[in-house]
C-alpha cells in the first residue's frame, strides 16, 4: 500500500485521525459497513445500503469486510490530494 497519508499536512492528518475516531463507534480500530453508513449521514451524503456497500468495497482494499485505520487513512489521503 502506498503511503499517501505522509504527504498530508499535519492538520490534514489530525483531521483524518479525528474523523476515524468519531466514526469508529465501537472503538474496534476498524470500521464496519454500518459505521461507514453513519459517516455518510454525518456528511450529508446519500447513505443507501447500495452506496454504503460500494464505498466499503472501494475502501476495504484487503477485502476482510472492515475498513482498518490504514485503509481509511489512505482513502482519505487520496481525497485530500485530488
Automatic annotation (TrEMBL):
Keywords for the protein's UniProt record, in alphabetical order: Calcium
InterPro entries per UniProt: EF-hand-dom_pair (IPR011992), EF_Hand_1_Ca_BS (IPR018247), EF_hand_dom (IPR002048)
Coiled-coil ranges per UniProt: none
Gene Ontology molecular function, alphabetical: calcium ion binding
PROSITE patterns: EF_HAND_1, EF_HAND_2
Top-level taxonomic group: Eukaryota
Pfam families (alphabetical): EF-hand_7
Record-annotated EF-hand domain positions: 11-46, 47-82
Gene3D superfamilies hit by this protein: EF-hand
Secretion signal span: none
Name by which UniProt lists this protein: Polcalcin
Amino acid at each position: 500500500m502506498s503511503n499517501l497519508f505522509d504527504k498530508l499536512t499535519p492538520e490534514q492528518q489530525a483531521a483524518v485521525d479525528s474523523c476515524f475516531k468519531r466514526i469508529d463507534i465501537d472503538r474496534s480500530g476498524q470500521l464496519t459497513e454500518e459505521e461507514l453508513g453513519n459517516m455518510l449521514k454525518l456528511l450529508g451524503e446519500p447513505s443507501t445500503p447500495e452506496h454504503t456497500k460500494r464505498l466499503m468495497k472501494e475502501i476495504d482494499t484487503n477485502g476482510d469486510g472492515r475498513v482498518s485505520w490504514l485503509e481509511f487513512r489512505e482513502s482519505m489521503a487520496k481525497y485530500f490530494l485530488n
